From TrEMBL:
Highest classification ranks of the organism: Bacteria, Pseudomonadati, Bacteroidota, Bacteroidia, Marinilabiliales
S-adenosyl-L-methionine recorded as keyword: yes
Domain called Pterin-binding: residue spans: 354-615
Sequence positions that bind methylcob(III)alamin: E691, G757, D758, V759, H760, D761, S805, T809, A861
Organism: Thermophagus xiamenensis
UniProt pathway annotation: Amino-acid biosynthesis; L-methionine biosynthesis via de novo pathway; L-methionine from L-homocysteine (MetH route): step 1/1
Keywords: Amino-acid biosynthesis, Cobalamin, Cobalt, Metal-binding, Methionine biosynthesis, Methyltransferase, Repeat, S-adenosyl-L-methionine, Transferase, Zinc
CDD domains: methionine_synthase_B12_BD (cd02069), MeTr (cd00740)
Protein name: Methionine synthase
Pfam name, any one: B12-binding
Amino acid sequence: MNKTESLKRLVRERVLLLDGAMGSLIQQYKLTEEDFRGEKFKNHSIPLKGNNDLLTLTRPDIITHIHKQYLEAGADIIETNTFNSNRISQSDYKLEDTVYELNKQSASLASKIVQQYSTADKPRFVAGSLGPTNKTASLSPDVNNPGYRAVSFDDLVEVYAEQASGLLDGGVDILLLETIFDTLNAKAALFGITRELQKRNLDDFPVMVSVTVADASGRTLSGQTLEAFLISVSHFPLFSIGLNCSFGAEDLRSYVKRLGEISPLYISAYPNAGLPNQFGEYDETPDEMAPKIFEYLKNGLVNIIGGCCGTTPEHIKRFGQYINDAKPHIPPQIERKTRLSGLDPLIIDENTNFVNIGERTNVAGSKKFARLIREEKYEEALAIAHDQVQGGAQIIDVNMDDAMLDAKKEMVTFLNLMTSEPDIASLPIMVDSSKWEVLEAGLKCLQGKAIVNSISLKEGEDIFLQQAKKIKQYGAAVVVMAFDEKGQADTFERRIEICERAYRLLTQKINFPPEDIIFDPNILAIGTGIEEHNNYAVDYIKATKWIKQNLPYAKVSGGVSNLSFSFRGNNIVREAIHSVFLYHAINAGMDMGIVNPGMLQIYDQIQPELLTLVEDVVLNRRPDATERLIDAAEKLKNTGKEENLSQKNAWREKPLEERLHHSLIKGIPDFLEEDLKEALEKYDYALDIIEKPLMDGMNIVGELFGSGKMFLPQVVKTARVMKKAVAWLQPYIEQEKRDSNKGPSKKAKILMATVKGDVHDIGKNIVGVILACNNYDVIDLGVMVPAEKILSEAIKQDVDIIGLSGLITPSLEEMSNVAKEMEQRKMKQPLLIGGATTSKVHTAVKIDPFYNGPVIYVKDASMSAQVVGALLSEKERQNYIQSVEKEYENLRLANQNKKIKEYFSLEEARSKKWTTDWKQAPIKKPNLLGIHTFKDYPINEIIPFIDWTFFFQAWRLTGNYRGIENVTDKISEQKWLENFTSDISREKAQEAIKLWRDAQNMLQRIHNEKMLKANGVIGLFPANSIGDDIEVYKDESRQEVIATFHFMREQQKKKGKETYYSLADFVAPKSSGVKDYIGGFAVTAGEGIEFWIKHFEEQQDDYNAILLKSLADRLAEAFAELMHFRVRKEFWGYNPDEKFNYDDLIRERYRGIRPALGYPACPDHSEKKTLFELMDVEKNAGIYLTEHFSMYPNASVSGLYLAHPESFYFGVGKIKSDQVEDLAKRKGFKPEDVVKWIPTNLAD
C-alpha cells in the first residue's frame, strides 16, 4: 500500500493529528543574524534575520529538532518549514533564486525524519506547506487605485508551481495550501499545482486547503463567505478542506462545524492557542486548549486536527490524548446543484426563482456604458453595475466586445474595479465575449465561481473541448450556445440537436460537471414582419422544456432583450414582450436570463389589451399578430411612467410634535424657529414645549442610544438642536416666570469634574452631553479640579450625584482622596467613577471601601444615562445599589483569592535582561545633536499623519473604517458601506461618514482660520545606560550628566520567555565603551483651543466643541508621528531612505520607538519632569505639567526616541516591593512617593 492509499485509509478510520506552530518554537532559540546567514549566505547584501524558512539550509539541526518534538508528541502529519518559501515572500530578502532549493531541502529533511518515526501501525506523513504569499490578487494595495493589482494570476501560477515542484521533488506526501485569505491566490495556486502534478502523473495526489477567516463575520480577508469560498475551489479534487489561524479553538469551532455541514470533503482544523494578548503572544496553555479541541473530536467535526500560532509539541501531545475516543467526521452527501459565487454564494435549483442576469454592463447592449468605457469614466460605468444590483440582478454580465476598444484590457480593468466594490462583487460575474483571450483574461480576475459566456461547436469539437477543459480548470460554469459548424440553431429541432451533442461531449469526454452547463438555445427577434421569425419564441420555449427533461442538471439561459429588438425605442411594448416571454419560458424551465430588471413589467399588471396583443406575437397565435402589435405600439410610444414625488421633505407634512421629534433625532435645526412659533400658539407655556414634545423627543433619543440604534455623533448633534431650541424659548420662559411666578420643575443635578492634576475632559464632556439630553442639570467644573472645590460646590449646589473623570494613573489616587473626603464630610450622594485608566475592579478594591455612599464605575458614555436613571429612581435605586455592592464585594474577594502571580526578584530579572553585541550594533550619531524647536508648524503637513481609528473610537464608533477617505459621493458611499454586513455595523458606518465629513470641514477651518497652533521641541543627546537608568550627557565628551531617566523592569514571570525588558536595555551600557544616543520630544496642537471651545459653548454647540477637542488630540498624535518620521529620516538620520507610507506608519513598521512617559513601558509619570527640564519644554513648546504630571494643553504628546532596530513597545506590568525600593533609591524618593505614581503597577 503506497503512502496515498495509507493516508486515505487512515483518515476514514480515525482523526489524524497534525503538528503545531513552527515559528513559536524557532523564537525560543533566540537566534542571531549569523544563525540565519550561516556560511551559505554569510555575505548576503541585506539582513536575513526573521526569514525562518532559511533555517532549513543554515540551521537544519534546529528544524530537525522541532520536527522530532512534534513526532514524539504523536503527530501523524508534520509540515515542512516552507510557509514563506515562495518567490514573492523571499523577494523581501532578495532570495528568489533559492526557492526551489528551500522547498526541496525542507521536504527532504522532513521526509527523512518521518521515515525514522513511521511504523506499520502508525505511519507518519509530510505535508508540504504553501503559504498565501504577502500579496493579494483580488484586492488593490493602493486605496486610491482600486483597479491596481500588485500581483497577477499568471504570476501566482508560476510562483506556486515552482514551490510545488520543489516540495514534490523533495518527497512530500501531501501538499497543504494554508492560511488562505484571498481565494484568487488559492485558485492560482491550485492551477499551478495541477500543472506540476500532471507533469508527474500524480492525478490522485492528496492536496489539502485551509482557509482563514478575517473576523467574526466569518468572511475571508478578500470578502468571501465560507460557502462562497468552498464553491470557488470546488472544481479541484481536494483531499480535505479546513480552517486554520483566525481564532482560538473555541471561537473557530462554529466555522469548522458549518464547513463540515456544506462540504463533501474531509475537514481539517488547526486553531491558534487562544487570541493574542496585548504583546501579540498566545497564552492558552495545553491544559486550557485541549478540552476545547475535545469538543471538536467528540462531536465528529474533523478528520485532521492540529495547532497554529502559539501551539507547541505539548499542545499536540495533549490533543493526542483525546484521539482514541474521537469519532472522525463523516462528510455529507451533497446534492448536485448549480453553485456559483461572488463574495456570497448563489445556488440555483428547482426551488430557485428565475435568476436575473444584469445586462447593462455590456458595450453592445448599452450605448451609455460603451461611451463611458471609451471615455474611461469607470466610476460612472460602475454606477451602472451598481444600479443593476439595486434593480434585482443576481448575476452581472460584462461584455467589452467593441471594435474601438481593447476588449482584453478593458475587461481586466473593469473586472478589477468591480471586484473592489463589495455590493457588486457579492454577485457572481458572467464574463461575456466572443474572443477566447478575453474570456480567459476575465477568469483570471475573479475569486468567485464565474460563468463563461460563451463557447460553442462553431469551430468544431476539438476547440470546443479544449476551451471547456480550461474553463473547468479555472473553476467556472459555462454557457453553451446552440451553434455548431453548420451555423446558428433557429428551429426547435436544431436547438435540441446541438444542445444534446454538446452535453454528451462535455460530460462523457472531459467529465465536465453537468450542473455547470448552461445552455442558451438562442433567443431571436420576433415581430420583425418576416414570417420565418414568427415561431422563434415558441421554439425556444419548447427547446427549454426538452433540455430540462432530457439533459439532467443542465440549466437554460438566454439574452431576453434580443426578443424585442424590433420594438427598440418603445419601452412599454418591449417591457411587456419581455414579461410575457419570461412568464411562459420560466414555466417551461428557463432558469436564468440576461435582462435589465428595470425593463420588466409585472405580468398581471400589463394592460389587458396590450397583454393579448403581446401574447399573440410571443406565442405565434395568429398570422396578423405582428401587424396588430405594431399598430398599437405607435399609440403607446410616447406614454411614460409617472415619476414618484420626492419624499425628501415629506416629514414636514406631519403633525407638529412629530416634526419636532424628527428635528431632534436627525439633528436638523433648520425648521426649529418655524415649528417653535407654531408650538407657542398650541401650548399654554413655553416651558410646556420643553417638558412635553421636546423632552418626549429626547426620551426617544435616549432609548435609541441606549439600545444601540443611535450613535454618539448623532446624540451630540441632537443635543445641539435641543440647546438651540431651549435658547430660542428662553426669553419666553423668563417672561412667563415674571408674569406668573411659574418656575420650572426641578431637574436632578449632576456635578462633574476631571480630578486635580488631570486635564483630560473629552470623555467627561460627552457624558455631560448625554446626561443633558436626558433632561438632567449638568454642572461641569472642568479639569484639574481639587477635591475641596468639587465637594464644596456639590454642597453649595445641592447636587444629586457627583461624577469624577481621569485619564492618567495618578488620577486614580486622587479619586480615592475625593471618596475619603466625602466620607469625612458625611456626604451621601452617589459617586460615579469614569475615565480611561479606571476599571470596575479598581473601583471596587481601591475607591469603594473609603466611602459608605454608593460608588459606581461607569464603563463608557453609553452607560451613563442608564446608571443615573437607576440611581435617581425611587423604584430601582435600592435594588440597583445593592446589586452593585454585592458585585463589588465579590470582586474584592476574587481579588484577594486570585491566582498568585509568580515573580523574579529584581536581581534575577536583571540577570535576564535583553542584550546584544554592542560592538556590532548599528548605532548612528545624530545629524543634529541638541535641542530644536518648531513654532506654528503647518497644520496641513500634519493632517496626513492622523490615525483616524482612534478618532472614531473617541466618538464610540468602534469598527474598521479604513478607506473612508475615498467616500466622495453617493456611489462611493454605497460601495464602501457594503463592507459592513450587519445592520448595526452599517448604521454605525453611515454615522462614521457623517462624522468624517464634519471632521474634514473642521480641519479645513482649523487650517484656514488658524484656530489652532502646533508647537514642538525635540532633543537629541549623547547617552548611555547604567543598569535600568539612562544617563544623558551635555556633549560628546560625556563628562557631564545633564539628566537621568529612571526606568522599571519586567518582573512577573512569563511563559516560555527568558528575557525581561527595561527601556534602558535598548541603549548601549556605559561599561561597553560604545557611544550611544537618545532623543526626547514634546509636541502640542492645542494652542488657541480655549478661545474656540468657549466660542462654541456660547453658541450652544457642544458638537463642534467636542469635535474640535477630539481633532486637536489626533493632530497632536499626528504631529508626534510626523516628528518621529523626520527624526528617523533627517535629524537623527538612522533611516535616511525611508519613504512616507501611511499603512507602515499606522502599523509602526519602522525602526525605532517613541515611548511615552507614563505609559506601559515606563508607567511612572514623574519621569516627564526630567524630560521637560532637559528640553525646557514650557518655554520651547508652550506645554506645562500639572502637579500630577498631566500635560497642558491637553492635546499634547511627549516621550523619548530610541533607535535600536530591535527596540519595541512592551508593558512593564506589575513589580514587587524590591523594585519599588530600588526605584525610590535611584530617584531619591521615598518608597511611598514612588507608589503614588504607579498605583496600578504594584504586585503587593
